[in-house]
Specification:
This protein is α+β, with helices and mostly antiparallel strands. The protein is built from 21 helices and 28 strands.
């Protein structure tokens, strides 16, 4: 053979041996099986921040949807009469009625009021309280009848209570008796139970103006009973209501993957030590991993923006010389309430220039002062909802890339939903901690002049007034303190927390100035370190602006405390000993069992940015390695069967030349796998499909060449010349076909995601290897077969 042919064969041999060497770690991985998944129940997963906001929403289904609107109004009137603190009652989905509680509102009372019939009737006083001659009913008689069913002797009267309003311990009421004059004294019953005694206010019994004294058991609060009776006399609702219970799936009920024991290694350690570090990562469908579906709380994203806008209004107004007493976001609504003595017209003009995304909605009076309400425009709410999902998608990609997970899939899945697939991820806890932590970092100054005794009294009053779940929520406590004027608008109270017996509990309240000095956006870098006591902490480096602000603030507040707040929890409140201008700060992680892991998670989320809205885990699937082994096994069988059929066809149809094509085809597949492994690409089932398509393209290229060679042989050309001409004339057809495939692959890669990208990458690599094997390997081997001019070619 000629020297050039030996050189070409050497190149082919080097490519084959190099590819096999690169693929050996992947062979070890496949033979030993993917890493075993650690199966965990989702219910056992703990968040770094486990606080749960109180459930302040109740939803009701009206029996008659056509009366939903008027029923919502009647229910709101009933709740207001009962003095239940509510933010609003409104329609959702056109028919359902939603009640949003204010701080201090109790769900059980709302449920009771919404389910009560409250049909009021009037009864003869003498038939309910039969008098003994000379002895009218005593207070004991009234107390005994309070809340009791009417006696069988009771005589009904025509009429009912039209309206009632409590004033002190009694109610002013309007009664309607139809065509029959009502007596001067009668008993009012609600749902068949005696609730009050009505007495006419005028001398003439025919009047409809009455005073109702509630029937109260001995020792009960008469004023409270009057308030409850007012709600009961608000009348029946236009239609009955059925509460809609939350339908979210309990994470503890989600299926879990079985625990599989790892098999012993079949390869000696010395052999594995000689192999390169090029194991081909397997996708979720092959090696198992974690599949999460996350729900972005879009409402919270909108409310968070409204909160930031309220702070912006305060700061900007101060700079522009407008006297604004306070600017606060309303609970559960994108409303900004501005208290100011400035004329409404001037305020509207200023808002239109500084914050045009809000429109004026109305004016309320609080403590004889006007409070102007501005509502975020619907277009802005939609923009925030759309951008929130995109921002969280980008942030999650950064966080997951920082964990080292190979080829994760992070894609949108409908409105406000994100699907995350983490191939090979075995620690479910770490995955959810990194993904689910909002990580909103703030720096505020501690109010050193706040009276500790006053703080204790405020919190005791809040504990007595609020339901337990609301009192355990810091935001709700602060809103209640502000609404009851116990806490100034420019102050707030936050707590330090620690883990005790698997519970995340408050330890110490600290009064703060309601001004954010720095945020997580001012952080440039964050790393885990150790403090003087060898406890883990997170060291942060500020950006240039943040470093300047930090330097100025610490210089102006020496010997005062500076609170570091993460997700509304005070991580630490160190005393400023001196001016700090180095642009660095530390967050102490405490002495919990998971302090080091929490430090790593915190450093990760600070480096990659905070989420602008909370995300909740809607669904978790742990795909076990057993499923991956089955997929590999079935894929291997399918590949073997398909390859065998192709090889047999090529041998039967092209005989010895078909053997050459089969050798080139085998080299092609080995090269594709080696390139994927060398560049760390992830092998998935769609990738295997791309390899199968590569086989088809490679076979097609050989068939085109062989058919051209056959044509030249039929024209009487010798074998050597026919091979040269056949490859030369088939080149354009092979190139055109592969360029067309490459265009399709580029489009799939550009606009696809996850598995589609994996398929496209494999296809692009297959196109390159197909051109190499068809135009170099096959041609070299055919030249070796026809190296003599007298050789007869079997084709």
């Amino acid at each position: 053979m000629e020297g050039t042919q030996w050189l070409k064969l050497g190149v082919i041999l080097a490519v084959v041996l190099g590819s096999l060497y690169i693929l050996m770690p992947t062979v070890v991985l496949v033979v030993e099986g993917p890493q075993v998944m650690l199966s965990k129940e989702v219910g056992d997963v703990k968040q770094v921040h486990k606080k749960k906001a109180p459930d302040t929403k109740l939803t009701f289904d009206p029996a008659d949807p056509d009366k939903a609107d008027v029923t919502a109004g009647a229910l709101e009137k009933r709740l207001a009469a009962a003095k239940i603190p509510i933010e609003r009652v409104h329609l959702v989905n056109d028919t359902q009625i939603e009640v949003i509680l204010a701080p201090g509102g109790r769900k059980d009372k709302v449920e009771a009021l919404a389910g009560a019939t409250y049909a009021n009737t009037l009864w003869s006083f003498d038939s309910v309280f039969p008098s003994i001659p000379g002895k009218p009913p005593t207070d004991a008689d009234f107390a005994k009848m309070a809340g009791m069913p009417l006696p069988p002797s009771a005589v009904p009267l025509t009429g009912s209570v039209a309206s009632a309003q409590s004033i002190g311990n009694t109610l002013n009421a309007t009664l309607k008796g139809g065509d029959v004059a009502l007596p001067a004294k009668l008993v009012v019953a609600v749902d068949g139970v005696a609730r009050g005694v009505a007495t006419a206010n005028a001398a003439t019994p025919a009047t409809d103006d009455y005073t109702i004294a509630p029937l109260v058991p001995t020792g009960n609060d008469v004023g409270k009973a009057a308030t409850e009776l007012e709600a009961a006399l608000s009348g029946p609702l236009p239609t009955t209501l059925t509460e809609v219970k939350a339908g979210a799936q309990n994470p503890a009920d989600l299926p879990t993957a079985p625990v599989t024991a790892a098999a012993p290694s079949v390869f000696p350690a010395w052999f594995i030590g000689l192999l390169p570090d090029t194991p081909m990562p397997l996708g979720l469908d092959l090696q198992g991993g974690i599949d999460l579906t996350l729900q972005v709380e879009l409402d919270e994203a909108i409310l968070s923006q409204a909160t930031r806008d309220a702070q912006t209004i305060k700061d900007q107004a101060t700079r522009d010389g407008i006297a604004i007493d306070s600017a606060r976001r309303a609970q559960s609504e994108p409303l900004v309430q501005v208290a100011t003595a400035a004329p409404l017209g001037d305020l509207q003009s200023w808002m239109a220039k500084k914050l045009p995304t809000y429109e004026y909605q109305g004016t309320d009076t609080v403590d004889d002062k006007p409070v102007y309400t501005f509502r975020m425009r619907d277009t802005e709410q939609q923009h925030i909802a759309d951008s929130a999902t995109d921002q969280i998608l980008d942030t999650l990609r950064k966080r997951i890339d920082a964990t080292g997970v190979k080829e994760p899939s992070i894609v949108k899945k409908g409105t406000g939903r994100i699907n995350v697939q983490l191939p090979g991820m075995v620690d479910l806890q770490s995955a959810i901690d990194a993904i689910g932590t909002t990580a909103v970092l703030e720096f505020r100054l501690v109010d050193e002049d706040f009276d500790d005794a006053k703080l204790d009294q405020m919190l005791k009053a809040a504990k007595d007034a609020l339901p337990e779940d609301q009192y355990n929520d810091d935001d709700t406590v602060n809103r209640w303190l502000h609404q009851t004027n116990r806490l100034a608008d420019d102050r707030l109270v936050l707590w330090e927390y620690e883990d005790k017996n698997d519970d995340h509990v408050r330890t110490h309240p600290i009064p703060l100035k309601d001004e954010v000095i720095l945020t997580g956006n001012d952080i440039d870098a964050a790393d885990v370190g150790r403090d003087a006591n060898d406890q883990p902490d997170v060291t942060m480096e500020f950006k240039s602006r943040g470093a300047q602000v930090f330097c100025t603030v610490t210089g102006e507040n020496v010997k005062k405390r500076f609170a570091i707040i993460l997700d509304n929890e005070i991580q630490s409140a160190p005393t400023i000993d001196e001016r700090i201008c180095g642009g660095r700060a530390q967050i102490r992680m405490g002495q919990s069992m998971d302090a080091l892991n929490e430090a790593h998670t915190l450093a990760l989320v600070l480096r990659t940015g905070s989420l602008n809205a909370p995300v909740s885990v809607g669904e978790v699937r742990t795909v076990g390695a057993t499923l991956g082994k089955d997929a590999i096994h079935n894929g291997a069988i399918g590949t073997a069967i398909g390859s065998t059929l192709v090889f047999l066809y090529m041998l039967m149809w092209y005989r010895r030349s078909g053997f050459v094509a089969n050798v080139a085809l085998t080299i092609n597949v080995v090269m594709v796998m080696a390139i994927l492994a060398m560049f760390g690409a992830t092998l998935t089932l769609p990738g295997i499909c791309g390899i199968a398509l590569t086989v088809g393209m490679a076979v097609d290229a050989n068939i085109i060449v062989y058919e051209r060679i056959r044509e030249e042989l039929k024209l009487g050309m010798n074998a050597r010349k026919a091979v040269d001409v056949g490859f030369e004339r088939a080149f354009s057809a092979i190139a055109d076909a592969n360029v067309a495939h490459a265009i399709a692959a580029v489009v799939l890669y550009s606009y696809g995601s996850g598995p589609i990208k994996g398929f496209a990458v494999t296809l692009l690599i297959g196109i390159i290897t197909t051109l190499f094997t068809a135009l170099f390997v096959s041609k070299t081997l055919m030249e070796v077969l026809t190296r003599n001019s007298t050789t007869k070619l079997s084709i």
